């Protein structure tokens, strides 16, 4: 029997190589189909995000109004510049949140304002500092909890930046109030319970 009619070895190897490559490609395709890739989070807020962002915005507007209450009371010039800065910061946070969520930054959380108003209506620097420390730490704790609920990337990122600054403000106000560094760095503040519904 002649061997001339047999397929050359190199051709058979090429065939097996092609078949092997096709098999690997098919296996990868099958794995990709069987194991779906998790969807990327949305960039813009969902409807659920927007409801919570509204509450966060209203909290920030209430904080702004509370600092303005202290300024109106006529507190010492020694801290008035700091208070103006804090009021401006909270107003900027509210506008930033409103911009992300497509809201109007015009409605403070009246319940939060009423809760803290008496403490902020003062000219006593230490008393003000303690009230401000409580407010800043409460706001930071609240935003931290909200971050775990948001779906949108921009809501989470912006809120994280707000928490960082409010935590620093908590340390500064604790120092003015005469608290220890350890106490300033480990605040005892609980997050507000926000329903995701607009405040009345």
Question: What's the topology here?
Answer:
Elements: H1 9-34, H2 47-73, H3 77-101, H4 110-120, H5 125-147, H6 153-176, H7 181-185
Tell me the name of the CATH class of the largest domain: Mainly Alpha
Weakly predicted, low-confidence segments: 1-9, 11-18
CATH architecture of the largest domain: Up-down Bundle
What global shape is seen?
Answer: globular
Count of β-strands: 0
- The number of helical runs is 7
CATH topology of the largest domain: Ferritin
**Quaternary state, please?**
single chain
* Derived structural class: mainly alpha
Please tell me the total number of domains: 2
How helix-rich are the residues, as a percent range? over 70%
Write down the secondary-structure element order: HHHHHHH
Report the end-to-end length measured between terminal Cα atoms.
99 Å
Written description of the protein model:
The protein is mainly alpha-helical and about 200 residues long. It folds into 2 domains: about 1-35; about 45-185, Ferritin, core subunit, four-helix bundle (Ferritin, Up-down Bundle). Helix content is about 70%, strand content about 0%. It has helices at about 10-35, 45-75, 75-100, 110-120, 125-145, 155-175, 180-185. Helix 2 (about 45-75) packs parallel to helix 4 and helix 3 (about 75-100) packs antiparallel against helix 6 (about 155-175). The longest helix has 27 residues, at about 45-75. The protein is globular. The chain starts with 8 loop residues before the first helix and ends in a 15-residue tail after the last helix.
């Amino acid at each position: 029997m002649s061997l001339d009619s047999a397929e050359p070895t190199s051709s058979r190897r090429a065939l097996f190589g092609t078949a092997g490559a096709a098999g690997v490609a098919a296996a990868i395709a099958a794995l990709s189909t069987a194991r779906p890739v998790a969807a990327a989070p949305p960039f813009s807020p969902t409807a659920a995000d927007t409801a919570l962002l509204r509450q966060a915005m209203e909290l920030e507007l209430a904080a702004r109004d509370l600092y303005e209450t202290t300024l109106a009371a006529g507190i010492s010039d020694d801290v008035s510049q700091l208070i103006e800065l804090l009021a401006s910061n909270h107003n900027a946070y509210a506008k930033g949140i409103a911009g992300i969520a497509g809201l109007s930054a015009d409605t403070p959380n009246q319940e939060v304002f009423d809760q803290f108003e008496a403490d902020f209506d003062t000219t006593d620097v230490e008393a003000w500092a303690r009230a401000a420390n409580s407010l800043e730490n409460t706001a930071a704790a609240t935003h931290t909890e909200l971050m775990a609920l948001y779906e949108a990337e921009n809501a989470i990122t912006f809120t994280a930046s707000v928490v960082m600054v409010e935590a620093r403000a908590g340390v500064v106000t604790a120092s003015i109030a005469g608290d220890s560094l350890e106490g300033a760095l480990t605040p005892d503040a609980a997050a507000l319970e926000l329903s995701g519904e607009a405040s009345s």
